[in-house]
């Protein structure tokens, strides 16, 4: 099974905070600001679930959230989060294998695609694309390389570390922007973090 973060669940947030400070959180909180009230949201690969609490700070009620996480340990931690008056359905499975009813207003993929080889990226991308309604928002955040030497060093270290510990299949970043543009998405906003190493983009699906 690829990219299961079970073994890292208990220290993942602490480690990412040591390495990246608040950058991973700030990038996702920036994206959450685009979510309209009363949205039906699909979160794929939410990790320990802190994103649910950030989401609840912005929208204490009215959201209908489906939270899909392949790691049982990550899902368990996420289920303990405060989610206010929002509705959250937790699914512990690979998102590409979960049959959901199409019609989500918002899809969120936080540091998900950089775990996958191209074939899995295509599978997951197409599956989520079909679940998002026309003109829906897709909030994606991942690492990117902008030509600075230290980015390569950090990226390579992460791939080695998470391959050994969590069995992730990837060894390079996927060409995710190309997938979005080929599928007809437009970028309506974007912002970079941590010296451009992290890019958060707000995509809108075609009508
Ligand atoms: C790099 S971590 C990011 C966690 C979280 N988004 C964050 O920023 O703290 C990727 C997460 O995606 C989950 N994951 C990997 N493949 C998945 C899949 N096919 N479906 C659902 N979740 C998946 C992993 O278990 C892990 O929790």
Overview of this protein structure:
Helices cover 36% and strands 26% of the residues. The protein is an alpha/beta fold and 207 residues long. It has one domain (8-205): 3-Layer(aba) Sandwich (Rossmann fold), CATH 3.40.50. Strands 3-2-1-4-5-7-6 form a seven-stranded mixed beta sheet. Helix 5 (118-131) links the parallel strand 4 and strand 5. Helix 2 crosses helix 3 (50-58). Keywords: Methyltransferase, Transferase.
Layout of SSEs?
Blueprint: H1 12-20, H2 23-32, E1 40-44, H3 50-58, E2 61-68, H4 72-78, E3 85-91, E4 104-110, H5 118-131, E5 132-143, H6 149-166, H7 176-182, E6 186-193, E7 198-204
Parallel strand pairs: 1-2, 1-4, 2-3, 4-5
Antiparallel strand pairs: 5-7, 6-7
Bound molecules: S-adenosylmethionine.
Quick summary of this structure?
The chain has 207 residues and is an alpha/beta fold. It is built from seven helices and seven strands, in the order ααβαβαββαβααββ. 36% of the residues lie in helices and 26% in strands.
């Amino acid at each position: 099974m690829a990219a299961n973060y079970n073994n890292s669940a208990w220290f993942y947030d602490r480690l990412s905070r040591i390495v990246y400070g608040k950058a991973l959180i700030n990038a996702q909180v920036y994206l959450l600001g685009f979510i309209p009230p009363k949205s039906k949201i699909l979160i794929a690969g939410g990790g320990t679930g802190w994103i649910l609490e950030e989401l609840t700070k912005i929208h204490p009620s009215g959201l209908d959230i489906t939270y899909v996480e392949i790691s049982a340990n990550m899902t368990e931690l996420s289920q303990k989060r405060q989610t206010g008056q929002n509705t959250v359905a937790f699914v512990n499975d690979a998102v590409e294998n979960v049959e959901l009813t199409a019609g989500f207003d918002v899809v969120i993929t936080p540091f998900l695609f950089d775990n996958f080889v191209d074939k899995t990226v295509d599978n997951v991308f197409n599956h989520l694309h079909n679940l998002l309604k026309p003109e829906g928002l897709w909030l994606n955040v991942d690492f990117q390389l902008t030509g600075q030497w230290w980015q390569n060093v950090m990226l390579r270290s992460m791939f080695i570390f998470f391959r050994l510990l969590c069995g992730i299949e990837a060894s390079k970043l996927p060409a995710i922007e190309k997938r979005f543009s080929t599928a007809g998405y437009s970028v309506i906003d974007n912002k970079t973090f941590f010296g451009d190493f992290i890019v958060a983009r707000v995509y809108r699906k075609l009508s």
